[in-house]
Amino acid sequence: MVAAAGSGHPGGSLSAADIVAALYFHVLKHRPQDPKWSGRDRFILSKGHGAPVLYAALARSGYFPVNDLINLRKIDCHLQGHPDMHKTPGVEISSGSLGQGLSVSIGMALALRLDKLPGHIFTLLGDGESQEGEVWEAAMAAAHFRLKNLTAIVDANGLQIDGFTKDVMNVEPLKEKYAAFGWRSRTIDGHDMKEIIDALQWSRTGEGPTAVIAKTVKGKGVSFMENNAGWHGKAPTREEAELALTELRGAKTPGKGSR
Amino acid sequence: MTTEPKPRATREAYGDALLKLGAEHENVVALDADLAGSTKSGKFGAAFPERFFNIGVAEANMMNMAAGLAISGKVPYASTFAVFATGRAFDQVRQSIAQPRLPVRICASHGGITVGEDGCSHQSVEDIGLMRMLPNMRVVVPADYNQAFAAVMESYRLAGPMYIRTGRPGVPPLYGRVPSGLGSGADVLKQGSDISIFACGIMAAKALAAAAELKKRGISAEVVNVSIIKPIDVDTVAESLSKTGCAVTAEEHSIIGGLGDAVSEVAVEHVPVGIGRLGIKDVFGKSGHPDQLLEEFHLTAGHLAELAGLVLQSKGC
Q1: Which of A61, A164, A215, B170 is the most buried (most CB within 10 A)?
Q2: To 10 degrees, what angle do helices B145-155 and B10-24 make?
């Protein structure tokens, strides 16, 4: 998809792939034929550059034809470089400018509570994104409003455009930071499907917001992309893409990453 | 015998209209960033605490929360000072309100320099320009209490995002009663034939005073109150320009990006005539009493009449 587009963000899409797969194919209550169903759970991709993995999940769920994916970022395609809620069915809010998704999610969670609707909001952030101050404004507010229908998932792949997150601007310890802000928080292996599903189901219980810090590998599943910041925002060549797909197709059931 | 009508602040109208909307519509919600007493959203908060969210000093978070509420079927009114609503949270307004065309009503108070003693950090002279630049954004600057009340009431029925600018000090009444709405957003308050004066906000009343002063000199000025800066009523503006052949604009805002530019754009594209712009001349504000500041920055009826005279001298060139 990204290779065909000639640009995009493969690294951060692959690190989030197992989390997004768990959400769309096991955790979320949603109706792809009725994207605006009022009883649905909501998924918010705050790290909007992970659009390819969201689009893949939406297509495989039936929101739009899988064949659309090959036209990612093309002039006449609804699949924008970053998610656009008016163009792509299933996209809850436009995103791409980092740090905003958690705040939007709080607004949605409050509205669901006012309307006594059962939906739960799952919001995926990056660890690099967590350097944005607004994330912590939101963290403060979600705990203040005791939003038990809100889960923040941090795709903690440890890398950002300019290098390792710990070198550019350390955001850790994320679990402890969320706990200090009044959230329940837990760290998991973001490539262990059982751990992901257990944590997300656990997050539906309790009296306040929940943070799941998912330790992931950027570029997961593609040997030459793993843990390499160079693959944050670069498309693979056709040869590289074929090699990557061969590796991904040959992958065993998602399990322990090569962290 | 009639008594002089009392000046009232447009922000007071926001608070009163919001309270009325809250009583009429269950899906109206309001947010503020620790300025509920000043913006007057606190009246709504006291009446409907379950639908009022004070976000604390976190404007970015507030704007995005408003977006989330709007997506979910609510009609959110988000208020803070104009300088923070547009400057501090510009990217949030752009990415999550304007681009997605969400019905968030950004009702910013304390626009312009009449904030007064707090000084330039709190005086917004760029907000109209910033909001006017955003696709989908409707930009409204009411001229008095009654028009501000009408603007807020009308906003509930309109689609898409909206920026409504109100002010801190009391302003003299221009509209005798609350109008049913803003109409096209350009009201001809006084007909004239020699020059058009386009004004918004507190400058609309001063434009009428300037026209009276010009009349003494034998000059017939047409006065148009432009309450919707975007989308501007091109027909009314162009018609007035065609009739008079020149114009001045007046606003409590930078001469860059605001009403002056909006009217000039209409002129350039439809009726290319000479235009003088009265406003803040690309500088920041300063501390002082509002009336002293208006004098200092030349935002008075006298300065407006003087500028009109200069434009008239070069008319036809």
Answers
A1: A215
A2: 30
Q: Strand B28-32 to strand A121-126: parallel, antiparallel, or no bridges (unpaired)? A: unpaired
| Nearest-CB residue to A112 (from B72, B91, B95) | B72
pTM of the model: 0.95
Name the fold adopted by B10-165. Answer: Rossmann fold (3.40.50)
Which residues of chain A neighbour B92 with C-beta distances below 8 Å? 100, 103, 134
Q: Which of A192, A78, A207 is nearest to A148 (CA)?
A: A207
Q: How far off is chain B from A168, nearest CA to CA, in Å?
A: 23
Neighbour count for residue B213 (Cβ, 10 Å):
18
Question: Distance between CA B266 and CA A136 in Å, rounded?
Answer: 44
Digits of tens for pLDDT over chain B (317 positions)? 556 778 999 999 999 999 999 999 999 999 999 999 999 999 999 999 999 999 999 999 999 999 999 999 999 999 999 999 999 999 999 999 999 999 999 999 999 999 999 999 999 999 999 999 999 999 999 999 999 999 999 999 999 999 999 999 999 999 999 999 999 999 999 999 999 999 999 999 999 999 999 999 999 999 999 999 999 999 999 999 999 999 999 999 999 999 999 999 999 999 999 999 999 999 999 999 999 999 999 999 999 999 999 999 987 54
CATH 3.40.50.970 domain locations along chain B: 10-165
- ipTM higher than the 0.90 cut: yes
Q: How do the domains of chain A map onto residue ranges?
A: 2-31+38-239
- Enumerate the active-site residues of B: 59
Are the Cβ atoms of B55 and A141 closer than 8 angstroms?
Answer: yes
- Nearest Cα to Cα of residue A134 among A107, A162, A104: A104
